[in-house]
Design goal:
284 residues; mainly alpha
Length: 284
Protein backbone atom coordinates (compact mmCIF):
# COMPACT_ATOMS: atom_id res chain seq x y z
CA UNK A 1 0.00 0.00 0.00
CA UNK A 2 1.37 3.45 -0.93
CA UNK A 3 1.27 6.10 1.73
CA UNK A 4 0.74 9.81 1.47
CA UNK A 5 3.22 11.92 -0.53
CA UNK A 6 6.11 13.37 1.45
CA UNK A 7 5.68 17.12 1.87
CA UNK A 8 8.36 19.52 0.69
CA UNK A 9 10.18 21.83 3.07
CA UNK A 10 7.58 24.52 2.62
CA UNK A 11 4.96 22.05 3.84
CA UNK A 12 2.72 22.69 0.88
CA UNK A 13 3.99 20.94 -2.27
CA UNK A 14 4.03 17.14 -2.16
CA UNK A 15 7.36 15.84 -3.38
CA UNK A 16 5.62 13.05 -5.27
CA UNK A 17 3.90 15.68 -7.40
CA UNK A 18 7.25 16.76 -8.78
CA UNK A 19 8.11 15.23 -12.16
CA UNK A 20 10.28 12.14 -11.87
CA UNK A 21 10.08 12.00 -8.05
CA UNK A 22 8.57 8.82 -6.66
CA UNK A 23 9.16 9.14 -2.92
CA UNK A 24 6.31 8.24 -0.58
CA UNK A 25 5.99 8.31 3.17
CA UNK A 26 4.75 5.24 4.98
CA UNK A 27 1.05 5.27 5.77
CA UNK A 28 0.03 5.28 9.43
CA UNK A 29 0.56 1.84 10.88
CA UNK A 30 2.56 0.73 7.85
CA UNK A 31 6.08 -0.70 8.03
CA UNK A 32 6.89 0.31 4.45
CA UNK A 33 10.07 2.27 3.92
CA UNK A 34 10.44 5.40 1.80
CA UNK A 35 10.98 4.91 -1.89
CA UNK A 36 13.84 6.80 -3.46
CA UNK A 37 13.61 8.71 -6.74
CA UNK A 38 14.65 6.92 -9.91
CA UNK A 39 18.37 7.65 -10.23
CA UNK A 40 19.74 9.26 -13.37
CA UNK A 41 21.62 6.18 -14.54
CA UNK A 42 18.46 4.07 -14.37
CA UNK A 43 16.52 6.71 -16.31
CA UNK A 44 19.22 6.79 -18.96
CA UNK A 45 19.32 3.00 -19.37
CA UNK A 46 15.52 2.63 -19.51
CA UNK A 47 15.27 5.38 -22.09
CA UNK A 48 18.10 3.94 -24.20
CA UNK A 49 16.40 0.53 -24.19
CA UNK A 50 13.07 2.07 -25.18
CA UNK A 51 14.77 4.07 -27.94
CA UNK A 52 16.44 0.93 -29.28
CA UNK A 53 13.05 -0.76 -29.67
CA UNK A 54 11.56 2.42 -31.16
CA UNK A 55 14.46 2.73 -33.60
CA UNK A 56 13.88 -0.77 -34.93
CA UNK A 57 10.13 -0.14 -35.28
CA UNK A 58 10.69 3.25 -36.94
CA UNK A 59 13.07 1.76 -39.49
CA UNK A 60 10.87 -1.22 -40.34
CA UNK A 61 7.58 0.68 -40.20
CA UNK A 62 6.91 3.79 -38.09
CA UNK A 63 5.28 5.01 -34.90
CA UNK A 64 8.19 4.21 -32.58
CA UNK A 65 7.78 7.59 -30.91
CA UNK A 66 4.59 6.25 -29.32
CA UNK A 67 7.02 4.56 -26.93
CA UNK A 68 9.75 7.16 -26.42
CA UNK A 69 7.71 10.36 -26.05
CA UNK A 70 5.55 8.94 -23.20
CA UNK A 71 8.75 7.64 -21.58
CA UNK A 72 10.24 11.14 -21.66
CA UNK A 73 7.08 12.63 -20.15
CA UNK A 74 7.08 9.92 -17.47
CA UNK A 75 10.63 10.94 -16.60
CA UNK A 76 9.50 14.48 -15.91
CA UNK A 77 9.85 16.41 -19.16
CA UNK A 78 7.10 18.78 -20.30
CA UNK A 79 5.34 17.53 -23.45
CA UNK A 80 6.96 20.15 -25.69
CA UNK A 81 10.44 19.36 -24.38
CA UNK A 82 9.77 15.63 -24.72
CA UNK A 83 8.78 16.23 -28.35
CA UNK A 84 11.91 18.27 -29.06
CA UNK A 85 14.22 15.87 -27.24
CA UNK A 86 12.75 12.91 -29.10
CA UNK A 87 13.52 14.56 -32.45
CA UNK A 88 17.26 14.37 -31.67
CA UNK A 89 17.08 10.60 -31.45
CA UNK A 90 14.83 10.31 -34.50
CA UNK A 91 17.26 12.42 -36.54
CA UNK A 92 20.20 10.20 -35.61
CA UNK A 93 18.21 7.02 -36.24
CA UNK A 94 17.28 8.06 -39.77
CA UNK A 95 20.86 9.07 -40.54
CA UNK A 96 22.20 5.71 -39.36
CA UNK A 97 19.47 3.82 -41.22
CA UNK A 98 20.17 5.74 -44.42
CA UNK A 99 23.87 4.88 -44.24
CA UNK A 100 23.16 1.20 -43.52
CA UNK A 101 20.71 0.92 -46.43
CA UNK A 102 23.36 2.47 -48.72
CA UNK A 103 25.93 -0.07 -47.57
CA UNK A 104 23.39 -2.78 -48.35
CA UNK A 105 23.04 -1.46 -51.91
CA UNK A 106 19.81 0.51 -51.39
CA UNK A 107 20.48 4.20 -51.97
CA UNK A 108 17.27 6.00 -51.07
CA UNK A 109 18.75 9.49 -51.36
CA UNK A 110 18.45 9.87 -55.14
CA UNK A 111 14.95 8.39 -55.23
CA UNK A 112 13.76 10.63 -52.40
CA UNK A 113 14.60 13.85 -54.23
CA UNK A 114 11.48 13.99 -56.48
CA UNK A 115 9.10 13.84 -53.50
CA UNK A 116 10.88 16.28 -51.21
CA UNK A 117 9.32 19.46 -52.62
CA UNK A 118 5.65 18.39 -52.24
CA UNK A 119 6.40 16.91 -48.80
CA UNK A 120 8.12 20.07 -47.55
CA UNK A 121 5.42 22.38 -48.95
CA UNK A 122 2.77 20.15 -47.42
CA UNK A 123 4.54 20.25 -44.07
CA UNK A 124 4.33 24.05 -44.04
CA UNK A 125 0.63 23.87 -44.93
CA UNK A 126 0.05 21.24 -42.26
CA UNK A 127 1.51 23.45 -39.57
CA UNK A 128 -0.89 26.21 -40.65
CA UNK A 129 -3.90 23.86 -40.75
CA UNK A 130 -3.08 22.46 -37.32
CA UNK A 131 -3.04 25.97 -35.87
CA UNK A 132 -6.59 26.59 -37.12
CA UNK A 133 -8.26 23.21 -36.63
CA UNK A 134 -9.17 21.33 -33.49
CA UNK A 135 -6.32 18.93 -32.75
CA UNK A 136 -8.83 16.29 -31.67
CA UNK A 137 -10.74 16.42 -34.97
CA UNK A 138 -7.51 16.36 -36.94
CA UNK A 139 -6.28 13.27 -35.10
CA UNK A 140 -9.59 11.44 -35.55
CA UNK A 141 -9.65 12.12 -39.30
CA UNK A 142 -6.16 10.75 -39.77
CA UNK A 143 -6.84 7.90 -37.37
CA UNK A 144 -9.55 6.64 -39.71
CA UNK A 145 -7.30 7.28 -42.71
CA UNK A 146 -4.60 5.08 -41.24
CA UNK A 147 -6.89 2.06 -41.34
CA UNK A 148 -6.97 2.39 -45.12
CA UNK A 149 -3.17 2.32 -45.19
CA UNK A 150 -3.41 -1.41 -44.58
CA UNK A 151 -4.72 -2.03 -48.11
CA UNK A 152 -1.55 -1.23 -50.11
CA UNK A 153 0.61 -2.68 -47.36
CA UNK A 154 -1.11 -6.06 -47.32
CA UNK A 155 -0.86 -6.49 -51.07
CA UNK A 156 2.32 -8.00 -52.43
CA UNK A 157 4.23 -5.49 -54.48
CA UNK A 158 4.54 -6.03 -58.21
CA UNK A 159 7.99 -5.49 -59.75
CA UNK A 160 8.06 -2.06 -61.36
CA UNK A 161 10.66 0.60 -62.14
CA UNK A 162 12.17 1.87 -58.90
CA UNK A 163 11.04 5.46 -59.37
CA UNK A 164 8.27 6.59 -57.00
CA UNK A 165 7.26 9.40 -59.35
CA UNK A 166 6.77 8.04 -62.85
CA UNK A 167 5.84 10.82 -65.34
CA UNK A 168 2.43 9.36 -66.15
CA UNK A 169 1.35 9.55 -62.50
CA UNK A 170 3.34 12.61 -61.46
CA UNK A 171 0.30 14.74 -60.64
CA UNK A 172 -1.41 12.11 -58.48
CA UNK A 173 1.79 11.25 -56.64
CA UNK A 174 2.55 14.91 -56.02
CA UNK A 175 -0.86 15.32 -54.38
CA UNK A 176 -0.32 12.18 -52.29
CA UNK A 177 3.07 13.31 -50.99
CA UNK A 178 1.76 16.82 -50.41
CA UNK A 179 -0.95 15.27 -48.21
CA UNK A 180 1.69 13.31 -46.32
CA UNK A 181 3.59 16.54 -45.79
CA UNK A 182 0.43 18.15 -44.39
CA UNK A 183 0.14 15.33 -41.88
CA UNK A 184 3.83 15.50 -41.01
CA UNK A 185 3.70 19.24 -40.43
CA UNK A 186 0.61 18.98 -38.25
CA UNK A 187 1.24 15.83 -36.20
CA UNK A 188 4.53 14.14 -37.29
CA UNK A 189 4.13 10.93 -35.27
CA UNK A 190 3.66 7.98 -37.61
CA UNK A 191 4.39 9.94 -40.80
CA UNK A 192 6.66 7.08 -41.86
CA UNK A 193 3.62 4.83 -42.14
CA UNK A 194 2.00 7.18 -44.64
CA UNK A 195 5.24 7.42 -46.61
CA UNK A 196 5.56 3.65 -46.88
CA UNK A 197 1.93 3.34 -47.99
CA UNK A 198 2.43 5.97 -50.71
CA UNK A 199 5.66 4.41 -51.92
CA UNK A 200 4.09 0.94 -51.93
CA UNK A 201 1.24 2.37 -54.01
CA UNK A 202 3.88 3.47 -56.53
CA UNK A 203 4.90 -0.16 -56.92
CA UNK A 204 8.05 -0.16 -54.80
CA UNK A 205 8.72 -3.14 -52.59
CA UNK A 206 8.63 -2.45 -48.85
CA UNK A 207 12.40 -2.77 -48.40
CA UNK A 208 13.17 -0.08 -50.97
CA UNK A 209 10.27 2.02 -49.68
CA UNK A 210 11.86 1.99 -46.24
CA UNK A 211 15.22 3.07 -47.68
CA UNK A 212 13.54 6.11 -49.24
CA UNK A 213 11.37 6.80 -46.20
CA UNK A 214 14.28 7.21 -43.78
CA UNK A 215 15.89 9.80 -46.06
CA UNK A 216 12.72 11.91 -46.25
CA UNK A 217 12.01 11.76 -42.52
CA UNK A 218 15.65 12.51 -41.74
CA UNK A 219 15.51 15.71 -43.79
CA UNK A 220 12.15 16.74 -42.32
CA UNK A 221 13.53 16.22 -38.83
CA UNK A 222 16.72 18.11 -39.66
CA UNK A 223 14.59 21.15 -40.51
CA UNK A 224 12.57 20.90 -37.29
CA UNK A 225 15.37 20.24 -34.78
CA UNK A 226 16.94 23.75 -34.79
CA UNK A 227 13.56 25.24 -33.86
CA UNK A 228 13.31 23.07 -30.75
CA UNK A 229 16.95 23.76 -29.87
CA UNK A 230 16.55 27.55 -30.16
CA UNK A 231 13.44 27.41 -27.97
CA UNK A 232 15.32 25.46 -25.31
CA UNK A 233 13.06 22.44 -25.72
CA UNK A 234 15.77 19.78 -25.74
CA UNK A 235 17.07 17.92 -22.69
CA UNK A 236 20.55 17.00 -23.91
CA UNK A 237 21.23 14.54 -21.09
CA UNK A 238 18.23 12.41 -22.00
CA UNK A 239 18.80 13.08 -25.69
CA UNK A 240 22.16 11.30 -25.38
CA UNK A 241 20.32 8.14 -24.31
CA UNK A 242 17.99 8.50 -27.30
CA UNK A 243 20.92 8.92 -29.68
CA UNK A 244 22.51 5.69 -28.47
CA UNK A 245 19.27 3.70 -28.48
CA UNK A 246 17.78 5.11 -31.69
CA UNK A 247 21.12 4.82 -33.48
CA UNK A 248 21.52 1.16 -32.60
CA UNK A 249 17.86 0.52 -33.40
CA UNK A 250 18.26 2.20 -36.80
CA UNK A 251 21.26 0.01 -37.61
CA UNK A 252 19.56 -3.21 -36.52
CA UNK A 253 16.28 -2.25 -38.17
CA UNK A 254 17.90 -1.58 -41.55
CA UNK A 255 19.84 -4.84 -41.41
CA UNK A 256 16.66 -6.72 -40.49
CA UNK A 257 14.70 -5.03 -43.30
CA UNK A 258 17.22 -6.08 -45.94
CA UNK A 259 17.63 -9.63 -44.65
CA UNK A 260 14.01 -10.29 -43.66
CA UNK A 261 12.44 -8.52 -46.63
CA UNK A 262 8.71 -8.00 -46.97
CA UNK A 263 7.96 -11.16 -45.03
CA UNK A 264 9.32 -9.41 -41.91
CA UNK A 265 8.30 -5.84 -42.68
CA UNK A 266 4.62 -6.43 -43.54
CA UNK A 267 3.45 -7.80 -40.15
CA UNK A 268 5.39 -5.06 -38.31
CA UNK A 269 3.67 -2.48 -40.51
CA UNK A 270 0.22 -3.89 -39.82
CA UNK A 271 0.74 -3.85 -36.05
CA UNK A 272 2.22 -0.33 -36.18
CA UNK A 273 -0.68 1.03 -38.24
CA UNK A 274 -3.30 -0.49 -35.94
CA UNK A 275 -1.48 0.80 -32.84
CA UNK A 276 -1.15 4.29 -34.29
CA UNK A 277 -4.77 4.39 -35.46
CA UNK A 278 -6.01 3.27 -32.05
CA UNK A 279 -3.93 5.93 -30.35
CA UNK A 280 -5.17 8.71 -32.61
CA UNK A 281 -8.79 7.61 -32.25
CA UNK A 282 -8.40 7.76 -28.47
CA UNK A 283 -8.89 4.05 -27.86
CA UNK A 284 -6.01 4.02 -25.35
Amino acid sequence: MLGRPVASRDGRTPLAARPGDFRFAAAPGSTATNRTPMDETTKWLILAAGALAAGVVNTLAGGGSLLTVPLLVFMGLPATTANGTNRIGVLFQNFVSTMRFRKEGLDGIRQALPVLIPVLVGAAAGALVASRMSAEIFRQVFGVAMIFLLIPMLRHSRPRPADPLEPRSLFVNTLVFFGIGVYGGAIQAGVGLFLIAALARSGLDLVRANAIKVVIIGLLTLVAVPIFVLQGQVDWRLASALVVGFGLGGELGARAAVRGGERLIRPVLVVSVLAMAGRMLGLY
